């Protein structure tokens, strides 16, 4: 997987095609604090456990909110979406944090 410029993503189609989307925002592939999460992101994207999840790496320089969080904490900013809606976002620095976020995504129920 490589980092994609968010301007090149058809977000509407992406949200229609995938119930679960996880976005790893970062400024470059080798950013400080990103290596462990990048490897984990790649590994999880290839597992049966998370086969329903679309994993993306997106250039954070096009997202001012993500960029500020990354500068402050020096780790990737992760956002998770369900059925096109943002469910959660935060800086994640380890496997437990990412797995916990993914599990909450699967369990999330919309309130009407």
Structural features:
alpha/beta; 112 residues; 26% strand; globular; 37% helix; 5 strands
What is the terminal separation in angstroms? 36 Å
* Average predicted local confidence, pLDDT: 84
Strand proportion, as a percent range, falls in 25-35%
H-E order: EHEHEHEEH
Query: What structural class do helix, strand and pairing data support?
Result: alpha/beta
Global morphology: globular
Number of helices: 4
User: Count of DSSP E strands?
Assistant: 5
Instruction: Name the strands of the widest sheet in spatial order.
Output: 1-3-2-4-5
What's the helical proportion of residues? 25-40%
Q: Write down the Rg.
A: 13 Å
- Unreliable runs, pLDDT <50, ≥5 residues? none
Description of the structure:
The radius of gyration is 13 Å and the shape is globular. It is built from four helices and five strands, in the order E-H-E-H-E-H-E-E-H. The mean pLDDT is 84. Helices cover 37% and strands 26% of the residues. A hairpin with a 2-residue loop joins strand 4 (77-82) and strand 5 (85-91). The protein has a five-stranded mixed sheet. It is of the alpha/beta class and 112 residues long.
In short:
With 112 residues, the chain is an alpha/beta fold.
Secondary structure blueprint with pairings:
Blueprint: E1 3-4, H1 11-17, E2 20-26, H2 35-45, E3 53-59, H3 64-73, E4 77-82, E5 85-91, H4 95-107
Parallel strand pairs: 1-3, 2-3
Antiparallel strand pairs: 2-4, 4-5
């Amino acid at each position: 997987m490589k980092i994609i410029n968010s301007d090149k993503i058809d977000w509407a189609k992406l949200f229609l095609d995938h119930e679960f989307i996880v976005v790893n925002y970062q400024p470059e592939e080798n950013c400080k604090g990103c290596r462990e999460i990048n490897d984990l992101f790649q590994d999880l994207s290839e597992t049966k456990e998370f086969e329903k999840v679309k994993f993306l790496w997106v250039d954070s320089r096009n997202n001012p909110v993500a960029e500020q969080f990354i500068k402050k904490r020096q780790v990737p900013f992760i956002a998770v979406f369900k059925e096109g809606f943002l469910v959660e976002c935060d800086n994640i620095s380890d496997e437990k944090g990412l797995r916990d976020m993914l599990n909450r995504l699967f369990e999330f129920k919309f309130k009407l």
